[in-house]
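Human:
Take a look at this sequence-structure pair and walk me through the tokens.
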Amino acid sequence: MADLGAPVRVSPLIRFGRWSFLVVGVAYGAYHQQRLAKREVGIREIEAQQKVIRDAKLAEEKKRNQEAEAKAIAELSAPTKK
């Protein structure tokens, strides 16, 4: 194996810069996450309102399809007059 030697002492200025960037990055990430969470809450409220409308339309369409299917079955099962 290669001999790596003794570790080099890092300048206090460089260590301060590294820790500063780490703290700033974590703070920015928390701020950005909070901003995105607020936006997502607004989007979810809009989607909830639209879901009610969409569900009503789907129920109406399903009812119409069932009625049409029942009518078609009734026409097919009715005896034909010749």
About this structure: The radius of gyration is 34 Å. The chain has one helix and no strands.
